[in-house]
Amino acid sequence: MKNDSKSPLINFFGGKTSYYLIGLVALLSVTIYLLNKISFIFHPAVVIFSTVLPPLVFALLLYYLFNPIVNFLSKKGLSRGLSIGLSYVVILGALVIGGFQLVPVIERQAVDLFNQLPGFFNDFQQTIQSFLDDTPFAAQSDEAMASIDNIVKDFSSFIVNNWQKGAQGIGTIFSAVSSVAITIFTGPIVAFFLIKNPQKLYQAFMAIVPPRFRHDVQELTKVANQQLGAFLKGQVIASLLLGAIYWVVFLVIGLEFATVIAIAAGILSIIPYIGAFLAFFPGLFIAFQDSSFMVLKFVIAWFAVQMLHGDLVVPRVMGDRLKIHPVTILIVLLVMGDLLGLVGVIFGIPIYSMIKLLVVFTFRKFKQRYNKYFGQNGTYENTDFSEKDYL
Which ranges constitute the DSSP H helices of 198-274? Predict the structure, then answer.
């Protein structure tokens, strides 16, 4: 066959004749077909990934939180092992002391809130219904309230029906509890070895990478380290600050169950944009039981703290380095939640950040190759890849 080596398209794909492109298309088609037929093989990999991910992410979180402290103590003459042990003991002691002080208060408020929340919701619904009855939207409001009642009844029936399965419910609860226990136990152990000799794993990994690709892998590692560190460390610190600010503000305005609502808002804010507002409605129901003035104070305080947190706390703690649009975050949470459940909701953003990193790297390599073979028709910009270029 005639040699087509002068064709830019064939050269772009690394071949010399058109047969090469035909072979690539055929090989890709066969690969997709075979992967579709043996897709069940990858299910264990998904299970392993979702099982290993929480302890690994927890270990990375501890690494990013403790590594600066250990580095500081190491400069003062302490060994890294002793520095890690000392840091663990101090943090564990603080948690134990804080637990003895806060757990009884949290437990009492949580039990009372759980028992009273259905009544709060009914009173809130009746208040809204009474207000709407005096407006032209009375008929529509009746239909809306009836729909809400049906949803609540269906949800209650669903819980009752599934609770009757017994063993399956207990198995699910046991699985969740065991997963949390494993994460809490193994995370600090993995983090200990990561912090003790952070370069050992990296050097072992780089020794496996072929020398030709080491520069690219080094740049990818730098950006991945920055992205994971910015999110994990920043999100936890920002969530703790948010919970503390809410706690002080709720105590100042005199909101009942202030401690539980503030802690819930801080913990749930780990889920970006969505989590904190899951605690908004219980707080709103509680405020309605007090007075209209309390509702006004609660709503103003809630959104004022949210604005303060979003405009001042988050940029200073996390910086503007993730480069993820808010709409993208919402889409990622929906998709990852459907794929991996709770694990996907909590860890969806760092997973997306790593996927985005690989996509950007691949596309910039594509642009470099395009400029090489099709540059006479116009060249791509921003083809270099490094931490500075990416950010």
Answer: 198-208, 214-253, 258-268
